[in-house]
Write a structure and sequence with these properties.
The protein contains one helix and ten strands. The protein has one helix at 2-21, and strands at residues 28-34, 37-46, 49-58, 68-83, 88-102, 108-121, 126-132, 135-139, 143-145, 149-156.
């Protein structure tokens, strides 16, 4: 219950600020999930770099023993589309990010690399993203996660 309240409050504070900073038509919001943070996904470009964030729960797969509020932020460099035409264009991005998970037990802190494949739907302002995210949990202890994936689906306005 406390996690949902914190999540709602954090999203209400972050969403208007990020949406106003992004150019019209470039701010995306939707859902994102994976072995790290799963929940509300946001993405906004700022010049050659895009900022992607997810606010939700950390460790949704039951790997951790408590309900954690999680926040992740990534810096992504979009690369040129490598396939276009028809209703879907394919592009990719590369970057890095960090995540924090706070719950009843020790906080989790991690860093990760990001390599994403973007399916950009042309008739509608939607993207579907699959990401490979190798990372390191820095606290508590150290754990290397070489096999880690996430995904997003976002609507742009």
């Amino acid at each position: 219950m406390m996690t949902r309240t914190l999540l709602t409050t954090l999203a209400a504070l972050l969403l208007p600020a990020v949406a106003q900073a992004a150019p019209p038509g470039d701010f995306g919001i939707g859902v994102g999930g994976g072995l790290g943070v799963s929940g509300l996904s946001m993405k906004a470009p700022f010049g050659p770099v895009a900022v992607q964030g997810v606010v939700g729960t950390y460790g949704w797969n039951g790997y951790y023993d408590d309900d954690r509020l999680g926040v992740s932020v990534d810096l992504l460099w979009s690369q040129p589309e490598f396939a276009s035409g028809g209703p879907v264009n394919l592009a990719w991005n590369i970057g890095f990010g960090g995540a924090v998970g706070v719950g009843r037990n020790d906080p989790l802190v991690g860093i990760s690399g990001v390599a994403g494949l973007e399916f950009i739907v042309q008739p509608a302002p939607i993207d579907i993203v699959l990401e490979y995210r190798p990372g390191i949990i820095l606290s508590p202890g150290t754990d290397v996660e070489l096999v880690n994936f996430s995904g997003h689906i976002r609507y742009y306005f």
